[in-house]
Input
Amino acid sequence: MPRCHNMLPETAIAFLLLLFFVLPGQAAGLSESPDDLTELSLEELMDIKIVAASKKKQRISQVAASAFVITRDDIRRYGYRTLGESLRRISGLYLSSDRNYDYLGVRGFSLPGDYNTRILVLVDGHRVNNALYDASLLEEGFPIDIEGIERIEVVKGPGSALWGSNALFAVVNVITRKGSDMDGGRVLAETGSHTRRKGFVEYGRLFDNGFELAGSVSGLDSDGENHIYFPELDQPGFHHGVAEGVDDEDACKGYLSLAYHDLGLMLYKNKRRKTVPTAAWDGAFNDSGTYTDDGFTSAELSYEKDIAGSGNGHLLARIYHDDYDYYGEYPFYDGGGWAGAYVLNKDEGWSKQWGAEIRYGMDITRSLTTTFGVEYQDVYEIHQKAWFASPYYALTIDTGTDRNAYHSSAYYLQGEYSLLDNLQLIGGIRLDDYSTIGKHWHPRAALVYSPRLSTIFKLLYGEAFRAPNDYERSYDDGSWQIGNDRLKPETITTWELVCEQNIGSHTRLVASIFRFELQDLITQVETANYLLQFQNNPHEVRSDGAEIQLQSRFDNGIEGYLGVSTVNSRDLELDTRLSNSPSLLASGGISIPLWSNKLYLSPDFFYVADRKSADTTADAGSYFLTNLTITSGMLFKNVSMSFSVYNLFAKDIIAPGSGEHYHYDPAADNYLYFNIPQEGRTFRFQLSCRF
Amino acid sequence: MNYALAISGKILQRATMLLALVLCVTSPAQTEQLTGGEYAVKAVFLLNFAKFTQWPATAFDSEQDSIVLGISGDDDFGEALSAIEGKTAGGRILAVRKLGQGGELHGCHILFISASEKWRLQQILAELAGRPVLTVADMENFAEQGGIISLANEGTKIKLTINLAAAQRAGLKISSQLLKIATIVGN
Output
């Protein structure tokens, strides 16, 4: 982990200094712990000074949407290793890996080669999607460690009326663990197949004077799969299609959050390196030199206050700064395939931005609640550069750092109006004004009806957009790819009918049918003179589907969930199904406590129907993936363990490749396109200890 | 690019150290003032409501039955409820049930209604009309709208408002010890 050593000691020292300076100050003047509060008299309770714990800024009304929550408990029980793995338990969501990054498909949409640009990912309400590629990473590139996540709130459907760009298919809000959640420290050590090693430390507390501290640091090192077989590349020149020992991954992450009364500070930084076994873009196959580095550095200062006596008034003001860094090395043979001289191609990029937002919500009358907000964002540096480093130096592209800088302002308003005791109308609209593409409006509306307490119907309509990112607009190397500054934003219109029903006292059912239309999809095409360019696709994409999600929690401790979804996603003009769009998805899991809650046995499964590949490769067949995790309850008061087997039955699973997954075969003078084999059977053991 | 990373790391480090120093200097002097997390304190209030309320005999099947506290809507309490679960109130054990949105309300003796259910508050209260259920919430004006006890935040303290008429309609008797520290409203 070469670069991690640069940031880890600095952050750790700063973190420890904070502990040593602040903790002794709080040691004197102790107050009652929550347990002792139960001994107080009524008068004493009335006299207590409340220190508000975690803020509710992330909790925007979820009534007007199809919302799902993944808890810390779910993550532990089913052994999810990454954010992406936890998200696919929600019906309609599926994960594909190209052995470099993981991509989340939502409602039949996951075009190979896309970078999760159509899903907005937030950490405590803070946007993660970087300005350079418009994407968030969902595997170990995600800046917050899975162990540091308290809860994940997923809203399927368009979210631009509140959040702006990228929220086309879903908004994923990752809520981190705060001091009051941690209430002490924890050390976790992990080992697994392919020499996987991970260490994680967290410490957090809510102190008596209202100061809340939470921090964590983690490091991961994995050799990856030693032997990956690509059947389409089974040629002697390509090592018979076997990539050996070129799948390793390193990641380190640091997180710190401080809160004092109404003020909050959040900092996080991560770095992740992955060796890429596919050697995309006809790189040197079976060569450990192809790798990518991704890193996020973010800081946010926020002020949040409940304004009592003004109708549940709530004010949020925040200011933030984000940095995203990317670096990659792509060695290749300049004769194509394995022929010619060995050339080292290097690629780097970064984006730096700062922004500020103010949001205010209040009850105007007993039946009307409104929220309005203003946001400003200044992306003051965007840089992309690619060059050959050896055997000779040649610059391919250098966009400088501020030539493509831009800024945007946004204004949004939402109202919730109770028409009747059990009927609510919600409407919202947001205006985004970009210095590059001008003004765009996105409205949404919802009608929520509750005929009886156990049933809720929701009729939803929403429009969302994605502004073209810098990579799509400006990556121009003059020889293979050109830019396009006339790109328009992608837009989506969604209609959905949802029914939420409680069945008995143990089961909740959410069923929905939806249609969405996607226009001006930005895709990479080959121009007349054989150059690659991003253009707005004139064809509309239409998707019709239905989803069901069932969740049960029984008194004997057994819990389970089941999700089934079907979708038909088509290019309207060509009347063909999209690539990597399975028509049927199913996922489910059950968690069984044994030995009076000392042990939990939690198998889960994922079924994905067959997916069309690009025209040049065979379709990827359907698969049925099973995992099993065994977790212990708390042993010896402080210790817990877990053991997981992923892909229990060692199925051969394939994800469709994208336009970059090809190699030139010099012997036969043709191009070999290939699909991506997914991970085989792997194990993981975790030992965690509180202190 | 390494330079950019190093700078970011340094900014992170310096920001944290600066904050540490600032907090040391501005830490208030230790007083005897008792403090507690918002929902930890509210949870203990719920336990006290169980202690200072009398349910009609018909509300329980037997003397061993627990007092059931239901949390309707989004769960803002989290871990705070484990501190009161299993404690005794008036000779009965307090049991906690997290109902989520639209969960089965019947069978609860105390119902805490989360702010997420605000939009159909009247529907919930209508469903419980005439039943011996102590309704509690931390929404503003809950008692004025027909709920029984409102646990609102007033600055950094808790303010109790009790709708006595609503309690009487539900067949519940609230002890004078609880009534005297609250503001009474009611129709």
